[in-house]
Amino acid sequence: MEKEWVFHPDYRLFGNAANYPGPRVEMPVSELGPADISTPPIQLKGQNPTERLSHFKEDWSLPKGPFSVEMWLVNHVNQPIGVAVSARGESTNAPIDWLLGYYGNEFLFGMDQGAQLKWCSAKVNRGWKRYWMHLVATYDGTEVKLYFNGNLKVMETIGRDRSGRSGELHLETCAYLANEPYMELANILKRLRITDRALSPGEIENRLKAYQEEVSKGILFPNLFHFTAGPYLHYATDTSINIGWETSERPIKTIVRYGEELPLSESKTILPKSGMEVAHNDCIQTTRLGKLKPSTPYFYVLEVINSANDTIKSGVLTFATAPAEAQPFTFAVIGDTEARPHINFRVAQLVWDERPNFVINLGDLTDGGKEPHKFEWTHEYFTGITPLASRIPFFPVAGNGESDLYWYNRYHQLPDPEAYYTFQYGDAQFFMLNSNERKEGFAEGGEQYVWLEEQLQKSDARWKFVCHHHAPYSSDENDYGDSWKEKSNLGDLKARAIVPLYEKYGVDIVFFGHLHTYQRTLPIFKDMIDRKNGVIYLQGGGAGGNLEDFTPNRSWFSAKTYRGHHYFTISLLQDELEMRMYDSEGRMKDVMKLKGASGN
């Protein structure tokens, strides 16, 4: 007999926007609230738990004889964090029967021997695909064996006498996440399974392979037809919007219902071959809704049907088309969402409160979501971003985290040549570049250099903005020479090669990420401060990547620096611009106003 629990963050916005697209498995629920847990908290490696889940509501008893306990974990952060599952008695002073835990780089197991727990442990690395770990402890009545990703790490003889023990055992899971604000138990623990016998090495290997296969396919919930990405909005114009989504298995059709009010009056049916990358064995679909009214709010619902006639629905979602020229609008800017869906979601909540017209993501949507690492999109990026991206359209650029463009291009339907593109929104034109190709592409005569000059020459937009991932100017402490030991270049010289075009054609602001801090420069023209002709550079890499730091001395171009997770908004009203930057608690840290932009 065995029991398995599945964990996944339940990220929802507030109020009427609190829908979760599609079905989900029932998460383990505690019979008791946090204040009702009478047993004392378990310290792990000197850390108190930040989250406890006790007395699972299950019609099932924990085994008292031989057993196996296994955890399927993902740890993609670089701060020490941990998780533990234990079997405990009901009373306050009841001893712990056994505990399986992980903290930092150590895998440990303890079992009661009457007076105290006997411990065995092993040092471990990050495991499969660098970040996934399968931890298994088996007990056959005499021996404890610990397996890490299918390999036997520890074998100990532990005899114990349970003759004096009475009462039922209950499960408790604890998370130790003090070093990662906003992180939840479900961000690290994905599966927990307990079996009433000692598993064999072959069984453990087979279970590991099954978990690996699900992760490779982007599956979030086993044996359940569900959304693995989205739905998410991207590339909105005044008359159209793109919608993307992915499901756990191949659908036979998708119906998009939409309209200006409920009940929805319009519909569009999408068959797999019209938008699915069948050759790549994924179930990604995109569609464009056209012939929409400018500056108009819409409602929409996705209904996706599989071959078994199961239907999953997105719930009622919303979007709005772009406003006409000269109308005010606001957009939000985030960057380097990377490996922390808990930070992504926190930022998403704050951005949603602003109700921007759209969001720009400055690259490194993932930490390294290239072809072999699909899970960085399904389990991380879309997990944290979908609540916002299902309601507010995104305009991304590619970072080094998705530099092969493999999943980036599959998940986004952008204008040709797709890796870089331009779009008009109200009084502004945006030029979205792929700075992964900056060595050749940004050099004079390079492909993107030539393309950008052509686009800037013919642009008559009141405001001109450039977005790419890498930094022309930055006070980062060690990306451009270790500033604690030597002189820094204060930016990427390959990215700086295209700066003369920004200055020649009156670009107002250049947005970029890559460095996981915030910096606003003074206006720069020909490597000097020039308030009349200069270009402002805004570095916004604070939506999830591991925080970095600045040079020990203030840079000559620096107007404002901030070390912390953040986002900012830009509001435009004809020739007036206001930028506001906020930290992850919603506190404003910087503000800038411009008047008299290019084109005036």
Could you explain how this protein is built, in words?
This protein is mainly beta and 600 residues long. The protein has three domains: 2-217, Jelly Rolls, CATH 2.60.120.200; 227-322, Immunoglobulin-like; 323-595, Metallo-dependent phosphatases (Purple Acid Phosphatase, chain A, domain 2, 4-Layer Sandwich), CATH 3.60.21.10. The protein is built from nine helices and 35 strands. Strands 24-25-26-27-31-28-32 form a seven-stranded mixed beta sheet, with helices on one face. Strands 1-12-3-8-9-10 form a six-stranded antiparallel beta sheet. A six-stranded antiparallel beta sheet has the order 2-11-4-5-6-7, with no helix packed on it. Strand 34 (576-583) and strand 35 form a beta hairpin. The longest helix has 17 residues, at 201-217. The radius of gyration is 26 Å and the shape is globular. Residues 275-280 have low confidence and may be disordered.
Strand % is: 25-35%
Main sheet summary: 7 strands, mixed
Radius of gyration, CA atoms, in whole angstroms: 26 Å
Question: Which regions contain 5 or more consecutive residues with pLDDT less than 50?
Answer: 275-280
Please tally the helical runs, counting DSSP H or I stretches of 4 or more residues: 9
What is the count of structural domains? 3
Q: What's the mean pLDDT score? A: 93
Amino- and carboxy-terminal Cα gap: 74 Å
Provide the CATH superfamily of the largest domain: Metallo-dependent phosphatases
Instruction: Please state the overall shape, judged from the principal axes of the Cα atoms.
Output: globular
Structural class: mainly beta
